[in-house]
Structures are given as C-alpha cells and as structure tokens.
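Researcher: Structure for this, please.
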Amino acid sequence: MDSPKDLDAFRNAVWQRLSRGVADRRAAARNPVLSTVGLDGAAKARVVVLRGADPSGGRLEMHTDAESQKVAELTREPGATALVWDARAKLQIRAEGALQARSGTEQEWDRVPAAARRVYGGTPHPGKAIAAPAAFAPSEVPARFCVLTLEIARLDVLWLGPELHYRAVFERRDDWAGHWVAP
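Model: Predicted structure, token format:
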C-alpha cells in the first residue's frame, strides 16, 4: 500500500480491504478479531469470519451460534471492536461500534456452506465444559444461526510506513468525517 495522503482515498482503501475479506478466504480482513465486554466486565476477544461489509451503511457482518457467550455479552453491553491486521499492507483497522444480534433468515441460512452449518447447533452449547475433546455432538439447528452486525461509529486506521506512520480516525454521523491523528 502506498502512503495515504488523502483521507477519502484512505477510507476507501480500508473499505476495499474489508470487502475483499468477505469474498476472498485468503484476504487479511477475512478473519478479524472481535472484542466485546464480557459478563464479568473483562475484555473478551475471538477470531470470527467476516461475512459482510457494507461501506455505504457502515456495517460489518459475522455469524455465530445464538447460544454463544458473545450473544449474551452484547445483549448486556453492545459496544464492540473488530480488529484487522493486514501484514502485507502494514495496515491496522479498528472498527468500533454497537454490535447487534438477530436470527438469521432462511435465505441467509441457505447461503451457509453445508460443512459450516454444523457449527450452528450441537450439544452442549458453546463454552460449556466437556469431558473430552470429542464429547460434543455437532448438528444443524437453523434456529441457532445468528447474524451479528457491527454498526460502525468509528474507524481508527494505522498504516506503518517505512519512514513515517500515518493514522486517521473516521467517525460516522450522517456521513463519514475523518481527520489525521498522531500515530
């Protein structure tokens, strides 16, 4: 990535990378780290798969099991951050906002690859103690397919250049407004 000199071009490059993460399994943005506030008040972070990126709406989409801990966490505290590190571009993207959960639609479920459907269901529920690694019975339970949407309020983007680092913050009100900040 070339040094970002223009705020709009920088923001557009970020959204291009996020969108690429949805379509390309090898893209750096494919697996962001999603951080939430745990029920115990501590930060909780996990790797997720990026399933949607909407630049005009300012949203990112991920899927999860409705019985996962992150759903309980965001019900209590919706503030969340999705973090992407693109090593090749030397680019860090922090997307901060409110995370919302909803049941997936039948059309969305139909787009989930057959091999991946087994992670939406199963006994016991995610995070429950089991006696052995294989003491889990996966199964397809469409009612447990949950769509997480991060409504981005703020993008904090850092590019690590060979000579200088550049950092910009973009905040969404009616439209995106950005400004440079010290790295």
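Researcher: Any notable elements?
Model: Residues 126 and 138 are 10 Å apart (CA to CA). The beta strands are 33-37, 43-47, 50-54, 59-65, 79-86, 91-103, 145-160, 165-172, 176-181.
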